[in-house]
Amino acid sequence: MRASGPKPPPVRQQPWPGPPPAPLPRPATQRPAPLPRPAPQRPAQRPQQKARHSSTPQVVRPPAPAPARRPAPAPQPSEARPAYQWVSHGQDTVVAGTTLLGGLLYVGTGMPDAAGIGTEPALIDPTLPVDLRNPDWSGESMGYWPSYADISPQARSAYLAWLAGGRANPNACIGYVFLYFYGLERRLLTELPDLDDADAEFATLVGEVRRLLGIYRNNRSFRGYAEGLLDAVALLDPTVRYDRAAPRVPEWSHELPVELKVGLAQLAVDGRPVPADWALSWYGHHPDAHLRTPAARCPDEFLELFSERYRAKFGDGMVVKPNKTRLSVGYYAASRGFYGHVTLENTKLPDLGKLTGPITKLRDIVDGVTGDLDAYSRYLGRNPDGAGSPAAIALLPEGVTHQPSPETDALWSWAAQSIGDDGRGVTSAQELISRWPTKTGKLAKADAVAVAQLLEHRGLGIEPDVRFGGNTPAPTSSVVLFRRADPRASAPGTDYAAALAIINLGMLVAAADGTVSEPERLALRELAIDDLDLSEDERLRLDAHAALVLTKPPTPAVLRRRLESLPSSRKAAVGRLLTTIAAADGQVTPDEIRTLERLFTTLGLDPGEVYGTLHAAATSADELTSTRIPGASRSGRTIPAPPSGPAGSATLALDPERLARTRADSVRVAAELAEIFAEDEPAPPPPPAAEATAVGGLDPAHARLFHRLVEQDTWSRAEFDALAAETGLLPDGALEVLNEAAYDRAGEPLCEGADPIEINQDIVKDMLG
User: Fold this and answer.
1) Which of 233, 265, 639, 658 has the most CB atoms lying inside 10 A of its own CB?
2) What is the DSSP string of 460-490?
3) DSSP 354
4) Treating both helix axes as pointing N-terminal to C-terminal, what angle do 568-582 and 590-603 enclose, rounded to 10 degrees?
């Protein structure tokens, strides 16, 4: 046993058999320092040990002190040389009339300890007295650094009885367990690599340590030494590691575990790529890396998405060349015969844990996966049982396997059945809302985004879509569901806004006579879609939007509201655009002319100019005559003469070839006017002043800092420090106060990351509530 500090008082124990004794108290915070070293002497260097399979382990020890302890036996004549042996597994030996079954013991006299200075503490000397009549079951006479040669005859009696009884009595004094453990430790660390049948004995010794650990695990001191020894001697085991699952990633690690180091080293030596799970384990254990909450809260999804992107970047995996640094591990020995720290080195395996380049390469993938899973992770933080729900699966990025709930499957099935043969389907928004988990009976903007994302998992889309400028569907409105094209657009492209403006204006004019004919729809599509740089997915979305507009065409009042703030020059451009759209199908009906006249009036333009503008665009050249529009020219129509009757009394037929010349100007104007059709949600009102003093129980200063922070999603550390200074707060202390308040109200931190600092916007409402 080892510990730092003075020897603790002995703990009285019940005689065996009886209730388990209380373990000896041991400090829990740090490993003990070695004994004082008044006159260090370096023992004779241990010769290099022969290789065992692919490894050549060596024990490197610090200089040994000259302890105040039983000296080594004096040299004796050759005919009386010290005699000791290792009793192998399965062999029996008799000491003081007690038969010790099973072996795994050092027995004899004169065996030096590992440092070569004193007597081996684990050596059972059969010449020493044993008091069989008065065994010290509780170990009261035991010293804190036990050695068989130093303990009392009563303690030897109890120790031998524990060995003879199967070394499994849970009521035994832990000092006797340590005394036996010292021998296993000595054999593993100093003698095993020299043996020809080392593999078999290695397995036996490791199995014995694990057996003891299973019985005496509740003793924290023994557990620490036993687990440390198992970790250290893993370096001696040539078994291939990389054909098994990688070590589990902890929440935080200051060092790579030996099993991980050995597996990575074997991969490098064999020239094999690092599997995805081993790469993630490497990153997660590295002290210079950090896995954020999503990796711990949804580890399966994190590993799946990481593996997909890791393979996309590295194929079968990174192939890392062996570095020059050799693999070594340190262990603080339990036996005082080692005098503290022991280093094991494997000269055949490199220490990839010293490399930083692979960690840098992995960081980009990890950061991307973390960001994509962040919303899903936060949802699970608020709804621990919500995995598989529509809202949860909607937040999962592409590439993650999921098990949908029955509610999610039902929503997907309903959406697919709502789409007709033309790839679109108009349905009630209330039908959608009834299938979405909402407590208010309405969709919030975040819900509308989630609905669109959930439908994308089945290749479907929805209009209106708030990500493409649409409003949040109201219960009384309609929605259009449609099939998407690959690749799917996740955000509007450069020309999408212009096309959307043309569709909205065109439907307003085309529906003037109460119906939108198929020629009008096709002509409008040609003007708004065919001549613009749009992806196939955007074209399908615009078709769906046009179908949505037909369910409730925009009124002149809507247009009037949107155009009030335009300057006069731009209003004139709108007028020219309206006439172009009205003439897109090659003719303008009297109803459309009357609608144009009303729209001109709304714009503050002279309604009498409608007919002249149309006629001039169709029959005379102007500054747009030389403009060329991509696409084949059309012919076969003649330009009719202006009607002799009053304006608008008959249909005005127009030459499509001449109308085509105005399209470039139409698209330009539509792009300039696109912002007037952006259907932004109204911004939430700012919090009242009184609320700033009572956010989540924060004091006024921290509440003011809170309101500043939630204005944006991320802040650099320098920016955060400046905000804290403005409110008279120390940055680190402010972070702690804000996160504690967030944990109290929502169970999650408000501020995550070091630089930049990310603000968890999902819990802002919880803190304000």
Assistant:
1) 265
2) EEEES-GGGTPPPPPTTSEEEEEE--SSPPS
3) G
4) 170
